[in-house]
Amino acid sequence: MPQILENISLKKYNTFGVEASARWYTEINSETDLEMLFSDKKWQTVERLVLGGGSNLLLTKDFEGLVIRMNIKGIESTLTGDRVIIEAGAGEVWNNLVMYCVGNDFAGMENLSLIPGSVGASPIQNIGAYGVELKDVFKSCRVFFIDTGEIEEFDKEQCEFGYRESVFKNSLKGKVVITSVKFDLSTKAELNISYGAIGDELSRRGIAEPTIKDVSDVVSHIRVSKLPDPSTIGNSGSFFKNPIISEVEFKQLKSSFPDIVHFCLPNSTVKLAAGWLIEKCDWKGKKVGETGTWKNQALVLVNYGNATGTEVYDFSTQIIDDVKSKFGVTLEREVNII
Ligand code: EPU
């Protein structure tokens, strides 16, 4: 039976670095640990919070239930022709997995370099960056059902991936735990360098025919230059989602704001850059007390030291209100608010 600790500080388990405590806390090192934990019905009835790297989370209060920290490790690869299937434990650090793939010349993950968080959390919000989303490399994941103790392997379709969305954030929220994830990668470099900033940085470096490692290095460089490092400045990456609106709404907005940053999507929808909207409301780089928006990327809220979760939350509400009144667009928080 995994050990259950009481009244544990969660400060070091959330990348925002805010203080909050957990009534109960346990670490899971195997699927058997999960089975044993939930064979005691008590843990099925208390509120639960499953934590990976704690990098997509804002704690606004103490958690009165059981925090389950996933620590299942292991990375295995199976080669078949020019495809390689990688299986990684939910508790592996995401970037360690990416570095393993880059180091072995397995292509597909390189654009997702340096995203904070764990492997097990990656399907939940279908993490994405620089033109690639998790779903592009995802094969399946093992899903533990808390109420029955059964484990099912979910394929891509069952995960219902969308933009920062999946079935795990919706109908299965709170009901399952992801224990491992399989990825389908290639041993041939099929690189995606369509994202403007990647191409710009490759040409600046004089690289005409990039390798997998080149792309990973460039992506890491862009991230480091734009985004705060959570080990020194608390943050959860993008705090809001990029809003998606209809073409009709977009046309109206564009007539008032001709330089609005946008990306046309299928089904007559348009994605707006939340960072741009926030910047145009004069919030970029603003600091209020111990919280603020990052100076190089307004979509990222930061904790300069001793911010409380509530302070960060209230700050985000002010941004939502301002963006709504200037552009008529409602920003949705991407991070999980507790
Ligand atoms: N922009 C501004 N001001 C800002 C920030 C951005 O005008 O303060 C403009 C940029 O100039 C650019 C556009 O907005 O024209 C897009 O900016 P960027 O390339 O930085 O990407 P993003 O849309 O703001 C998304 C993801 C990031 C991911 C980047 C790169 C979301 C919510 N965020 O940000 O993901 O790293 O693309 O692909 O989709 C995360 O989810 O935690 C995250 C960091």
Enumerate the spans where pLDDT stays under 50 for 5 or more consecutive residues: none
Largest sheet: 5 strands, antiparallel
Q: Which molecules are bound in this entry?
A: uridine-diphosphate-2(N-acetylglucosaminyl) butyric acid
Beta percentage is 25-35%
Number of helical segments with 4 or more residues = 9
Tally of structural domains: 3
Distance between the termini: 27 Å
Question: What's the SSE pattern?
Answer: EEHHEEEEEHEEEEHEHHEEHEEHEEEHE
Helix content: 25-40%
Number of strands: 20
CATH class of the largest domain: Alpha Beta
- The strands making up the biggest β-sheet line up spatially as 6-7-12-10-11
Principal-axes geometry comes out as: globular
Mean pLDDT, nearest integer? 96
SS class: alpha+beta
CATH topology-level name of the largest domain: Uridine Diphospho-n-acetylenolpyruvylglucosamine Reductase, domain 3
Q: Give the radius of gyration.
A: 20 Å
* CATH architecture name of the largest domain: 2-Layer Sandwich
Which secondary structure elements does this structure contain, and how are they paired or packed?
Blueprint: E1 4-9, E2 21-28, H1 31-39, H2 42-45, E3 48-51, E4 57-58, E5 63-70, E6 75-80, E7 83-89, H3 94-103, E8 128-129, E9 132-133, E10 138-145, E11 151-155, H4 156-159, E12 176-186, H5 196-204, H6 212-226, E13 234-238, E14 244-246, H7 247-256, E15 262-265, E16 269-272, H8 274-280, E17 287-288, E18 291-294, E19 297-303, H9 309-327, E20 336-337
Parallel strand pairs: 2-5, 3-5, 4-20
Antiparallel strand pairs: 1-2, 6-7, 7-12, 8-9, 10-11, 10-12, 13-19, 14-16, 15-16, 17-18, 18-19
Helix pairs in contact: 5-6
The chain binds uridine-diphosphate-2(N-acetylglucosaminyl) butyric acid.
Uridine-diphosphate-2(N-acetylglucosaminyl) butyric acid binds next to strand 13, helix 8 and strand 19.
